[in-house]
Amino acid sequence: MHDLHIHTTLSACCADPEAEPAGYLALAREQGLTAVGFVNHVWDSRIPGASPWYAPQTFERAMSIREQIPADTFGIRVLVGVETEFAQGIIALSPECAQQLDYVLVPHSHIHMEGLVRPAGVTASRDIARFLADTFDDLVSRDFATIVAHPFCPLSFDSREQLPEIFSCLSDSRLEQSFGLAAEHGAGVEINLAIFRYGAEDPLYDDTYYRMFRIARKMGCRFSFGSDSHSLAELDRLSAQKRVGELLGLTEADLVSIAR
Predict the structure, then answer these.
(1) Residue 260 pLDDT > 90, yes or no?
(2) Residue 5's Cα: distance from chain center in Å?
């Protein structure tokens, strides 16, 4: 088991003062993890366009995580990456910084950030579906993201009512196009366990996220798992990892290389 999407107190949205590497690693040992990855939010100061929320979350700030990782990691492999941003055509990390990392996690679905990521006025289900598909294709075609974070997850638009509406606008052929591109360009696909907020076996996800991930697998994509923890308590989301993997029929061969 692994978790390649963990935030610490270096992310502005982390409200748990105990959410630091030592605490996470102690819990990871209890849960039998073999690898963890810390990916705090970053907007590289070399890239223009940061919002006031993003601006203080510089690459240099994120890299101070290296000083916080204890010498004894209980035999757990520790990777250091970042979760940067993809905002209206801008990837908020320079290639020079990316080269210093074990991997780069890039979302295209922070659509709760109206004006920065989602254009104002894009609220209808069909428009959101089109936006998610187009931005996913654009992102993976740039050969930059090691892994796409929470793909096609319409953050803040994922209610029981709107999530099925959005996915009804994404045909199998449209998803095949997107994940075919991801496979072609070697972009990994994250299975973000936080998106299953009603439980991994809730029928809501049968024709939404599970349909999407099965298509991604059919198209040859490789996967990673992430708890998207912003607190120590949220690492418990990993309890669903085995069951989600079983429902999708995943094997070790289906994982991105850094997760094996």
Answers:
(1) no
(2) 7
